[in-house]
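Suppose a colleague, Dr. K., hands you the sequence of a protein chain of 269 amino acids and asks what its three-dimensional shape might be. Before reaching for any lab equipment, you can write down a predicted structure in token form. Begin with the sequence itself:
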Amino acid sequence: MNRRTFGLVGMLAAASIALAACGGTPGASDSSGTDTSLSSVKGAGAIVFATEGTYKPFSFHEGGAGALTGYDVEVATAVAAKLGVKAKFEETQWDSIFAGLEAKRFDAVANQVTVNPDRQAKYELSTPYTVSQGVIVVKDSTNDITSFTDLKGKTTAQSLTSNWFTLATDSGAKVEAVEGWAQAVALLKDDRVNAIVNDKLTFLDYQVTNPDSGLKVAATTKESSESAFAFRKGSTALTQAVNTALKDLSADGTLGKLSEKYFGQDVSK
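The predicted structure, expressed as tokens, is then:
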């Protein structure tokens, strides 16, 4: 989730790269300015989603070499079914994913695109299908950290380039630099740090595969981050159709079930 928030610089840089269109459908508009985004997908019988394929648990290959799967992949596939078309996936690197969208290599991005004002101005964004917060993770035995103000004078394990590093230091914590979540957990379990500040989804995903981790959430931020599908500007008809599909998938319980499968609780709203 961190790089979703801080991927804007890379996104803007990548957007300047000219790419030849080699996939997807022709929408969002024809030469007359008519929005063809939905009719093009319907005509092709498929909607092409861009995704990394290396971003577990959202988009990854099971065992490293199995079929593409993950929360985003399954939600996108369910959306396509509601539209009456097949879901196809184009795997690409995050840094070039928006350039590919603008070059019409795909119809949409399904890769935990964080909603923010810059992206809302530049792209069509669907109704959010993932909602998360920042959390403080501590050992089950820790009782003296119950809020972010309690981090003052404590040591947390953080990646120095993440927004969680900023939140930890703004809260008064000293930071032990790590390369990622796995290293942070190792330091916490060895009592070399007092806590970790990270995204709630990262912790929930870890708990699903490590139910006896001995870790717990000590505090949660009041602010939430939301993730959505991204479309080219002008793809209004396709975005609205996807929003209707997401509303139906929420009402029939599909989004809740997929959330439970990957995170152990409903993170879709």
